[in-house]
Amino acid sequence: MRSELVYRAGLKIENKFLLSTTVMQAVRKLHINSTRTEDTSNRVLVDVAEGRYAHGALPEIEPPPTIDTLVIVPSV
């Protein structure tokens, strides 16, 4: 059952690490102590699969700064 929920949620958020982070953060915020954690996580996975939760936009990846050529001064 849960594997199907994970699969459906993975169609919305393709990066598995981003999916797990999104689900964990939502479960932490939505969990009520009188309910089972499994039920909360299942509900969050269903909500992600239906497009209700999505992690914020990923930042643009900046290329690393260029490395200047190393100038070796010969010792006299």
What order do the helices and strands come in, and which of them pair?
Layout: H1 2-12, H2 16-30, H3 37-49
The DSSP helix count reads 3
Q: Measure the end-to-end span.
A: 75 Å
Tell me, rounded to a whole number, the average pLDDT.
84
Low-confidence stretches: none
What is the chain-wise order of helices and strands? HHH
Largest sheet data: none
Beta strands, count: 0
Helix content: 40-55%
Task: Describe this protein's structure.
This protein has 76 residues and is mainly alpha-helical. The protein has a domain at 2-49. It has helices at residues 2-12, 16-30, 37-49. It starts with a helix and ends in a 27-residue tail after the last helix. 11% of the residues are buried.
Please describe the structure with a list of short key phrases separated by commas or semicolons.
76 residues; mainly alpha; 3 helices; 51% helix; elongated
Overview in brief:
By secondary structure, this protein is mainly α.
